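[job 0412] stage=complex_fold ligand=uridine-diphosphate-N-acetylglucosamine status=START
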Amino acid sequence: MSAFLVEGGRRLRGEVQVHGAKNSVLPILAAAILAPEECVIHNCPALSDVTASLEILHHLGCRVERTGDMVRVDASVLTRDEVPEDLMREMRSSVIFLGAVLGRTGRAVMSYPGGCELGPRPIDLHLAALRALGVEIQEEAGVLRCAGRLRGCDIALSIPSVGATENAMLAAVGAQGDTTITNAAREPEIVDLQRFLRALGADVRGAGSSVIAVRGGLPLHGGSYTVMGDRIVACTYLAAAAAAGGEVEVVGADYRHLSTVSAVLAEGGCVLRSGPDRIVLRGEAPLRAVCPIRTAPYPGFPTDAQAPVMAAFARGTGATVFVENIFDSRYRHVDELRRMGADIKVEGRVAVVCGVPALHGAGVRAHDLRGGAALVVAALGAAGESRITGLHHIDRGYCQLDEGLRGLGAAIRRV
Ligand code: UD1
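[job 0412] stage=complex_fold status=DONE, emitting structure tokens
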């Protein structure tokens, strides 16, 4: 079992480049199925979720080639429209293949993705959007059998779900006629997906706003595309610098996508300055308490940044309240942070973090992706050595996190 060994208490200094965004590259890889020609995708990070997506593409009959951070996907011939359960289970976001395969072939058989470490993750909105597009879906024994002639329609999402918006966009590109998605998610990754689809010849407009319009049924072609930088990885490096102190320049993410997180860190006492593709944080740890942090759909405070930012505020002065509004079970890092000396109380969706003067190193375990990153953040600001296990969670979304942090002077190694 591998682990990160972190010797905390060193200030961080230097520049770090963020890799391509996990939450962009996964729907983009699925979207490559829609085009019957080769797509070349650059800035594709070496993450286990990307490997799982490429396995699904390969299983469906695509030719897949990965060279460094470039991936070629040629979906000219699809030999299958079903994804077996073991591949679906490897990655919760595999549900995104439903919209893409249906958009291309009008048929798909996939197992229900089920719950995950963040609690139940229903897909009712995904299925309702696909049904509205004319897909008949039979659910039996955890398997979804989907088929239909897809026709454009009006889809109104009851909540702005990221995955449901993406699935609806992908299926609508393959449907005949016009689709309007109302109350669409506005995350930057949706804009990235729209840009990729447009690069293939699709007519998709409005991403980034609450209404997305798709003119479906156009012939698509191959294309080349560079995935945007990962804003959550950028937030994690900022939280690390805030926790450990020092001055760090994070390059490769759009500072406008980080504004709610930067505002909170600035309120806590860090000094930030930004350019179009970079953001510099100078921190004199410890942080002081800030106004309540409430997670919300974009452009609100991202749920994915909640855990790493909480870890930074664990050492500090005063009490900061966190309210997790997106997922039911997203405080599993709290017990682990307590082992390091943090004073955090959780009641339902609310966590109250009373900053302590110092954290100490401890043996802790990652239970989910961002919670795992939070443990790394806390360990960097703690006195003494921490041993972090459960790295398979962290590897789903961070490519060589230890190497990036070592480049900033952190004492972290994978053993
Ligand atoms: C995506 C991101 C994830 C991020 C989340 C919220 C990817 C691969 N993952 O996940 O990192 O934390 O957005 O920003 O992009 N819901 C339903 N029914 C549905 C779908 C969702 O009730 O059919 C609920 C969920 O349980 C959750 C909320 O809607 O409470 C938001 O989920 P959603 O935006 O769909 O998140 P994901 O797309 O799964």
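The pocket of uridine-diphosphate-N-acetylglucosamine is lined by residues 23, 26, 93, 121-126, 159, 161-164, 185, 189, 303-304, 326-327 (CB under 6 Å).
[job 0412] exit 0
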